[in-house]
Design goal:
Low-confidence stretches of chain C: none
CATH architecture of chain C: Up-down Bundle
Distance between the termini of chain A: 52 Å
Chains: A mainly alpha (419), B alpha/beta (261), C mainly alpha (229)
Oligomer: heterotrimer
Mean pLDDT of chain C: 89
CATH class of the largest domain in chain A: Mainly Alpha
Number of helices of chain C: 6
CATH architecture of the largest domain in chain A: Orthogonal Bundle
Strand content of chain A: under 5%
Order of helices and strands of chain C: HHHHHH
CATH topology of chain C: Methane Monooxygenase Hydroxylase, Chain G, domain 1
Structural class of chain A: mainly alpha
Mean pLDDT of chain A: 88
CATH superfamily of chain C: Phosphate transport system protein phou homolog 2, domain 2
Number of domains of chain A: 3
CATH class of chain C: Mainly Alpha
Radius of gyration of chain A: 30 Å
Strand order of the largest sheet of chain A: 2-1-3
Radius of gyration of chain C: 19 Å
Low-confidence stretches of chain A: none
Helix content of chain C: over 70%
CATH superfamily of the largest domain in chain A: MetI-like
Number of domains of chain C: 1
Number of strands of chain A: 3
């Protein structure tokens, strides 16, 4: 009787445990599925952005142009060289309208590639060259089968004529699909086939550099004071509570602060990584302080006692023992804080870093934008190609953030000590 | 007694008079008067929370590190009141080595563990000098033979007993004349304990040793004098053999023979 | 003394004390029997005394091994240590007293059949009763941990010495007058010497009791009478 009772109880307990396990495993699987879906959908839709369709143009410079080139490459009318060479490949096209349509197959920045070719190969000035230039975004999408050529003409952004020109190019073997590095080598552009992320990446790096330089030393020193030196009283309690609250303040508030203090009051340059970095540093500070304090609090008191016991002063205890031992934890916290800052857009909105900026910034006071801002702007662009570019940019941002987190994990693994 | 103590030169290494310790509003030690002889082992025994660890930490002012801990009274070490404001606490702690309950080597090499104290106090004049100090300290701590060929290994790679001897070497590397030991064997197995006890017996030729222990047998085996603490008061202080054969106080008797006191 | 936190030691100690009590009772019986047997010339009683001595030896051995085990397992200190040491020693003393009783019985066996036995003027029974009394009191003092009783025994040992001395002198003078009875008289001297030794041992018990309670041996010198001349 009692045996039976115990047995049923036991069975119930086991099945409850099993159920509990199943719940938690399925929660984990669900989370992983969502994550996998998200990342794979981004990855898949970013694929077209990593290849580029190029159209080969037969070009031969005439003597005038060669002379002009030798004087100064800027004197050459690259656009007309491109147009004339391209039209001559289609002798049947005569009307102005058709020629215009034909020219639209090429990217508006195609002539830059021609110029670059001659600058790189000055010995080929007088040769017959086939120069591959980027196709326009519509051609790009058509060749990649994203635009359906069987649709009626008024429902696609590319005309029947253009398609016939393309077919001719295809049959002449003048269409080439190449891997594209322009996402990394070009900066932003209105033309999707020319737009790249270099400006955003460099802007992000500069901004993060400023953030790190400001927030790491201040955060760490503040944390050392609070954790090791400050007496425990009302005042430090209030500071502590405030720091914890600051970590939860909406990031746009920091942007407002930046706008009011750094731009309006201190007249710092607008849209500059300097200001963006300072604002993000303010945002990251509480995170670093909290992480540093946690890391230092986890150093066992026995190490401190040992150091005090042989007569180390407080500073020596901190500098020789507590700080080096806490460093992996501090670095982890810092990198995670910086990574979070690298993904921020809201505070930068207020200080003008959410802008279309073509030039790659070269110093922290230059106008610049950051990756997330660029993603946001690209997502707002009407051209269909930007859809794929946005995905690609998100993927790149994700990879950068994952790499930063990986670095944090590696640092922790490498320097973590056990007591 | 106080007056006499301040008039005649102190023949004891450590003399405490009317030492009171408060943690916030809670009094942890009441009126401790104790004389500790030079180059003897003095054992402090008593149940947990009786204040013996608090007392030993008064002797090198480790209690200063504890927030809200207030020490009153006079603690004379060689005729100097260590609680007076002009005592240099760093120098004091260099003169008084301390070994803790849990072996706590720094997560550094064996060499660096021992060399740390001499380095921060600038004791060694050259690298050679430092090597010598490290060797001498490790030898005195009876660890040299076991580690001489791996001084670069981490101090944490040693066994518990070796770690504790490393801590002893670290403490004696700065040339203290007093060694405080706060339950140095409580985390060790009996063999490692025996090794440390033998070491303590050797060390007492050079150092005045004050040891807190939970092991009655250890106090009996090691010490010349034993003090019994109970609830923050010193109940009895006598020659060890008296304490363990014929204690004067019933509470001491009850404690050492494991009776319900 | 309060109880130990760990009751197993108390149990062992109680067991030892119980054995000692039994041993004490046995030793008293042996002494008493040997005296009555001597008085009554009871040959059978002599035999039973001699046979019973073995059980005394056994109990003493038991006490010893229990004490040894308790010492090894518990490493007692202070009072606990003393109580075990004293128990062991008192056990050994009681065993010795048993041996003396046996010896008295053996010697008595020989002399009771002598023809001149009844004409002996010596009050050997008186000495015996005095020693018996001391033994009883010393065991009381030990069992009750009564330091005053113990000290009294300590002091009254001088009476034993005096009694023994007078008996000794009497026998000696008797011996010069009756050299034929030399064998019997020698036995008698041994018997009275045995009783005197038992008396000494009772003071030992008292001394051990004092040590058990105070942790030191009595400082005052024991009063002594001349035992030889």
């Amino acid at each position: 009787m009692t045996d039976n009772f115990i047995e049923t109880r036991l069975r119930k307990r086991y099945s409850a445990e099993k159920r509990f396990k199943i719940y938690s495993v399925s929660a984990l699987i669900l989370a992983l599925l969502i994550l996998a879906t998200l990342i794979s959908s981004i990855a898949i839709s970013s694929i077209p952005a990593f290849t580029q369709i190029n159209i080969g143009i037969d070009i031969k410079m005439n003597d005038d142009q060669i002379l002009q080139f030798e004087e100064d490459p800027e004197n050459v009318s690259w656009r007309s060289l491109q147009k004339k060479s391209f039209y001559s490949m289609f002798p049947d096209v005569e009307t102005r309208k058709d020629k215009k349509e034909l020219n639209k197959l090429l990217s508006t920045g195609a002539y830059i590639e021609i110029k670059k070719f001659y600058l790189d190969n000055p010995n080929k000035l007088s040769d017959n060259n086939i120069i591959y230039v980027p196709a326009s975004d519509d051609v790009d999408l058509l060749i990649k089968d994203i635009i359906d050529r069987d649709l009626p003409q008024d429902m696609r952004t590319i005309s029947d004529n253009q398609i016939s020109y393309l077919d001719k190019l295809i049959s002449n073997n003048r269409i080439k699909k190449t891997l594209s590095w322009r996402l990394f080598s070009n900066s932003d552009s209105r033309e999707p086939e020319l737009a790249g992320l270099k400006g955003g990446i460099v802007g992000t790096l500069l901004t993060m550099f400023v953030t790190l330089i400001i927030s790491f030393p201040i955060g760490v020193l503040a944390a050392i004071y609070l954790e090791e030196i400050a007496p425990k009283n009302k005042f430090t309690d209030i500071i502590e509570v405030n720091i914890n609250n600051l970590a939860a303040v909406p990031s746009i508030v920091y942007g407002l602060l930046g706008l009011a203090v750094f731009l309006n009051y201190m007249n710092m340059p607008r849209s500059a990584p300097l200001v963006g970095g300072i604002v993000l540093a303010l945002m990251t500070l509480p995170v670093i302080i909290i992480a540093t304090r946690a890391a230092m609090a986890s150093i066992p008191p026995s190490i401190r006692e040992a150091a005090y016991g042989v007569g180390a002063s407080q500073m020596q205890v901190i500098v020789h023992h507590v700080f080096p031992l806490a460093l992996p934890g501090i670095l982890t916290g810092t990198i995670i804080g910086i990574a979070r800052a690298a993904g921020e857009t809201a505070p930068l909105l207020m200080i003008g870093m959410m802008a279309f900026i073509v030039d790659v910034p070269s110093k922290i006071t230059d106008k610049a934008t950051v990756l997330p801002a660029q993603i946001y702007m690209w997502a707002n662009n009407p051209e269909r190609s930007f859809e794929y570019l946005t995905s690609a940019a998100i993927l790149i941002l994700l990879v950068i953030l994952i790499m930063m987190n990986l670095l944090a994990i590696l640092l922790r693994k490498k320097y973590e000590r056990r007591w | 007694m106080k007056d006499v103590g301040s008039m005649i030169p102190n023949q004891y290494k450590i003399t405490t008079s009317n030492v009171n310790v408060d943690y916030g509003s809670k009094r942890a030690l009441h009126d401790i008067n104790l004389q500790i002889e030079e180059k003897e082992v003095t054992a402090l025994i008593g149940p947990s929370g009786c204040g013996k660890s608090t007392f030993i930490r008064c002797l090198n002012r480790m209690n200063d590190l504890i927030e809200g801990c207030k020490v009153e009274g006079k603690i004379m070490i060689d005729d100097v009141d260590i609680n007076s404001s002009d005592t240099d606490i760093v120098e004091l702690r260099a003169r008084i080595g301390m070994v803790f309950q849990k072996p706590n080597p720094f997560p550094k090499s064996i060499y660096d563990n021992v060399a740390y104290g001499p380095r921060i106090h600038g004791i060694a004049k050259s690298n050679e000098d430092l090597d010598n100090i490290v060797m001498k300290s490790l030898k005195r701590a009876g660890l040299w033979n076991e580690v001489e060929d791996r001084l670069d290994a981490s101090g944490l790679s040693l066994s518990g007993g070796q770690q504790q001897r490393l801590c002893i070497a670290r403490a004696i590397a700065v040339n203290p004349d007093i060694l405080l030991m706060d339950e140095p064997c409580s985390a060790l197995d009996p063999i490692a304990t025996a090794v440390i006890e033998e070491l303590i017996n050797e060390l007492k030729e050079r150092y005045t040793i004050v040891i807190v222990t939970h092991s009655m047998q250890q106090a009996a085996r090691l010490s010349e004098k034993t003090a019994y603490f109970h609830l923050g008061k010193m109940i009895e202080y006598d020659v060890t053999s008296n304490i363990f054969t014929n204690p004067k106080h019933e509470m001491t008797e009850a404690y050492i023979s494991g009776r319900i006191g | 003394m309060t109880e130990h936190i760990n009751s197993a030691f108390d149990t062992g100690l109680k067991e030892v004390n119980k054995q000692i009590a039994k041993l004490g009772a046995l030793a008293e019986t042996q002494l008493d029997d040997s005296l009555t047997a001597l008085k009554e010339k009871n040959i059978q009683k002599f035999e039973s005394i001699i046979n019973r001595d073995k059980s005394l030896d056994k109990i003493t051995a038991d006490v010893s091994s229990s004490v040894f085990e308790l010492l090894a397992l518990w490493s007692p200190i202070a009072y606990d240590l003393r109580s075990l040491l004293v128990a062991d020693r008192v056990g050994a003393i009681l065993e010795r007293i048993g041996d003396y009783s046996k010896n008295i019985a053996r010697r008595s066996q020989v002399i009771v059949s002598e023809e001149n036995f009844d004409r002996l003027p010596v009050n050997i029974i008186g000495l015996g009763q005095h020693v018996q009394d001391l033994l009883h009191k010393s065991l009381d003092a030990y069992m009750e941990l009564n330091i005053e009783k113990a000290m009294n025994i300590w002091e009254s040992d001088i009476d034993t010495d005096r009694l023994y001395l007078s008996i000794f002198k009497e026998i000696l003078s008797y011996m010069t007058e009756n050299p034929d009875d030399a064998k019997m008289l020698t036995h008698l001297i041994f018997i009275s010497k045995n009783l005197e030794r038992v008396g000494d041992y009772t003071t030992s018990i008292a001394k051990q009791t004092y040590f058990l309670i105070e942790g030191t041996v009595p400082q005052t010198k024991r009063p002594k009478a001349m035992t030889t001349f």
